[in-house]
Write a structure and sequence with these properties.
The protein is 45% helix and 16% strand. It is α/β, with parallel strands linked by helices. It has one domain: SGNH hydrolase (Rossmann fold, 3-Layer(aba) Sandwich), CATH 3.40.50. The strands form five sheets. A five-stranded parallel beta sheet has the order 4-1-5-8-9, sandwiched between helices. Helix 5 runs parallel beside helix 7 and helix 7 runs parallel beside helix 8. The protein is globular.
Length: 308
């Protein structure tokens, strides 16, 4: 296990050095007037015509924000963004959800486009920025998840591909600040901005035996490097952290829990098997509806304690 602390240091150092080189380790957003004017992009959630001055919740992200479910094979309305919206709407009946999440989105495609189509916009980020500018002062919440697809595939042959991980983390470290600062500049000081870090679906490999248990610990260190890069990028753009990694007990190999049909396993493994599709025949990284409810709860707790 002696390689694990070294791996963690390498991954964390890569994230920090990339940010420092770009001058993005601290807050980088600045409020200011903008001259651009845009109309709202078309989305699956639109304002009812009788709402005179609706408030908006704008959600961005990858397949988690979009609500992809492997048992159905497409995006659904069970995503954490949909579940969070349902809770927020209880206190603001006029709240409208602008759901922009795109399955398969990476940090690069969120900025440049190429996967999902947004009428009148070149990318998911462009669509969000145009909407925020056009509705400045009327957007109450902005949520984001991005970066997982930049390192997806870095666990190969039962072991962490460090070169793959370093490349992905460096990309996340460089591009998440661009995304968060652009959103904050467009939206101004009115919205509550929050973004999540990630759980580690590959902890499920623990169940395959001793080699899998080693790989699970290495994967957990990969998640540390990724989440450090994400968190630094959020701070650069004035976003608060929705700590999903902690909610999923990602680093807790010590506490034990009973997994039906298996027995006692580390708590982090039990939660991945319970809250994602990884330990089902689908062997899929996405959160189940229950897992999405957990994620929504992390965001909701954050928004209940208002702080810009």
């Amino acid at each position: 296990m002696t390689a694990l602390p070294r791996l963690a240091r390498v991954l964390a150092a890569a994230a920090c050095s990339t940010l420092l080189a770009a001058g993005l380790a601290g807050p980088a957003f600045a409020e200011g007037s903008t001259s651009a004017t845009a109309t709202a992009p078309a989305t699956g959630s639109t304002a009812s015509s009788h709402h005179r001055n609706p408030d908006y919740y704008v959600s961005l992200g990858d397949s988690l924000a979009a609500g992809y479910q492997p048992n159905i094979g497409h995006d659904t309305n069970v995503s954490y963004t949909d579940q969070l919206y349902a809770q927020l709407k209880k206190h603001d009946p006029d709240l409208v959800h602008i759901k922009l999440g795109c399955s398969g989105e990476t940090t690069e495609t969120m900025i440049a486009g190429g996967i999902c189509h947004y009428p009148g916009a070149t990318s998911q980020l462009d669509a969000a920025v145009k909407f925020l500018r056009a509705h400045r002062g009327h957007v109450s919440y902005v949520t984001l998840d991005i970066g997982a697809n930049d390192v997806d595939g870095c666990l190969k042959g039962g072991a962490v591909d460090v070169s793959c991980a370093l490349k992905g983390i460096a990309t996340v470290a460089a591009q998440v600040p661009q995304i968060t600062t652009a959103l904050h500049r467009a939206g101004g000081s009115h919205p509550r901005y929050a973004a999540m870090n990630y759980y580690d679906p590959f902890l499920a490999v623990w169940l395959t035996g001793p080699a899998g248990q080693q790989a699970a610990q290495e994967s957990a260190q990969l998640s540390v490097g990724l989440n450090d890069a994400v968190e630094l990028g959020l701070k650069a753009g004035g976003f608060r952290l929705a700590d999903v990694s902690t909610a999923f007990s990602t680093l807790d190999f010590t506490d034990q829990a009973t997994l039906p049909g298996v027995g006692q396993v580390p708590l982090n493994v039990a939660r991945i098997c319970t809250w994602t599709w990884m330990c089902t025949p689908y062997q899929d990284i996405h959160a189940t509806p229950t897992g999405h409810a957990v994620i929504a709860g992390v965001f909701l707790d954050l928004f209940r304690h208002r702080r810009h």
